[in-house]
Design goal:
With 483 residues, the protein is α+β, with helices and mostly antiparallel strands. The protein has helices spanning 22-32, 87-97, 168-174, 178-181, 189-203, 210-238, 242-263, 283-309, 311-317, 325-331, 335-339, 347-350, 370-395, 447-458, 467-474; strands spanning 4-6, 12-13, 35-44, 47-56, 61-69, 75-77, 100-102, 127-132, 144-150, 153-160, 272-273, 276-277, 414-421, 426-433, 439-445.
């Protein structure tokens, strides 16, 4: 068997993971035709062991295999030539270990760029470059955007990230904690903390209470709906639809203030801990949450329908920033960006949690444009509210203790994949332990890792004034990339 087949949040022994020579592994990757979610290395004395994780979204299974590069082996034949979605994974692996994917079409640094970074350039008397960042106005995080334009038309956009150099994955090995996990990406506190907690609990063979599971997912859906509402306001602001910007901004505040009442933090910090949660939701608070969400749902529905009926709004959103289904599949997009282009990926349903089994996963008519990404947010807000109400009703049927339980030490020589569907898409945490049960490798993949290149594709042949709108319609994460 060339692959170890496992499931989300299930611990396996590293010794069970097959080790192939790379040409055979490359053939296997191409042959099984699954979706890559992990491609990373681990230093083993003088050798580097490459781990590959592929997802079968239809069957809800995960495939793991590996290959070992000896000290003197410094290259291999690129997989990107056959499967373009590997391009960022191979670039990251090369950057970290210096093992070159030969014939990679875009072998540039992901994070550790130098002053001699070579941008793509176009020739022509009337072609000009526009450079934006890495320092931006306001509080936006650092990223550099290099536009190649002819007049107002964008022919190409190159995005240079990696300005923060935070060393998160190394910190996860030396000082793992819920506080660190929830600080990795500030607008995805719950998603990241949940992915981390699930990984640690799986390594320790820990089962948490039903009530704790429900509270965690209620918080996850509140985070999803709050960010989506805020983004609807930001999209409205970028097209000067000021009524929408004002109403959505105020409405988002109602949701995050409700999170404040649950956990003492508007963003859910401190709510989730390994082994459970730190705060309960009683009947009175449950009823208040439902009341707030009902008001928010009414306000969102009225505002979005009014907004999308406006000809000036639709003319700015429709056919702007298009990423086709073919492009989305080729680039390996995930989450909201994929769904808006017609690829229905959602780990809540593809790798189902028992609490999502009776929730209908509806799709939208997807054109891959800003309009589709806007409508998808509205659809997911409604869906999240429906899920929250279902989960709150189930809370009353459980009397078990939701607070954190003791989590035993991690099992030695173990490997676990933990996937949580954040509001952007899948947040993937992969944890490995050594012979003593200590973390020896911790790999994190934010959905933005897959989706940044889609923004560059989306703005091609659009006017440069459309870039802020396209950018906001994806709302990708700098810090989720700069690990």
């Amino acid at each position: 068997m060339n692959w170890l087949i496992t499931e989300n949040k299930k611990r396996v022994n590293i010794s069970e993971i097959p080790v192939l020579n790379f040409p055979n592994l490359r053939e296997e990757i191409i042959k099984i035709n699954k979706r890559v979610i992990g491609f990373f290395g681990k230093q083993e004395e003088e050798n580097v062991r490459l781990f590959v994780v592929m997802a079968d979204d239809i069957e809800g299974k995960l495939y793991i295999s590996s290959s070992v590069f000896a000290k003197e082996e410094k290259e291999y034949e690129s997989i990107t030539q056959e499967i373009p979605a590997f391009h960022v994974f191979e670039r990251e692996f090369y950057e970290e270990f210096g093992i070159e994917p030969k014939n990679h079409p875009w072998l540039k640094p992901m994070r550790n760029h130098k002053n001699d970074y070579k941008f793509f350039e176009m020739e022509g008397d009337e072609v000009h470059q526009v450079a934006v960042g890495p320092i931006h106005a306001g509080v936006i995080e650092p990223g550099h955007f290099r536009f190649m334009c002819h007049g107002e038309k964008i022919y190409d956009l190159e995005i240079q990230l990696g300005w923060q150099h935070r060393g998160v994955e190394e910190l996860m090995i030396s000082s793992p904690s819920n506080q660190l996990a929830e600080s990795i990406c500030g607008d995805s506190v719950i998603a990241y903390n949940l992915a981390y907690s699930n990984a640690m609990e799986a390594l320790g063979d820990c089962e948490i209470s039903n009530k704790a599971q429900l509270i965690r997912l209620i918080a996850l859906e509140m985070e999803r709906s709050a960010i989506h509402i805020g983004d609807l306001g930001a999209i409205a602001g970028d097209i000067a639809y000021l009524m929408g910007a004002s109403i959505f901004g105020a409405t988002r505040t109602l949701v995050i203030n409700t999170m404040l009442e649950i956990s003492g933090s508007r963003f859910g910090r401190g709510l989730i801990t390994t082994g459970g949660v730190n705060f309960d939701i009683d009947k009175q608070l449950s009823e208040k949450i439902v009341s707030v969400l009902n008001k928010v749902a009414t306000d969102v529905e009225r505002t979005i329908k009014t907004m999308l009926k406006s000809p000036t709004v639709s003319s700015r959103l429709e056919k702007t920033g298009v990423v086709s289904e073919e492009q989305a599949k080729s680039l390996g997009l995930v989450g909201m960006a994929a769904k808006a282009s017609g690829i229905n990926l959602d780990s809540r349903f593809d790798f189902p949690d028992k609490w999502y089994q009776d929730v209908e996963n509806r799709t939208i008519k997807a054109e891959g444009d800003v309009y589709s990404r806007t409508r998808l947010r509205y659809k997911e807000i409604k869906q999240s509210f429906h899920i929250i109400k279902k989960l709150l009703s189930k809370l009353e049927t459980y009397n078990d203790e939701p607070m954190n339980v003791y989590v035993s030490s991690s099992k030695p020589d173990s490997f676990v994949i933990s996937i949580t569907e954040g509001w952007r898409g899948e947040v993937v945490h992969i944890a490995l332990t050594d012979s003593q049960g200590n973390l020896s490798r911790y790999k994190i993949k934010d959905p933005s890792f897959n989706n940044w290149f889609a923004l560059a594709m989306a703005v091609r042949n659009n006017g440069i004034s459309d870039f802020p709108l396209c950018n906001k319609s994806f709302n990708l994460s700098y810090c989720g990339n700069d690990l």
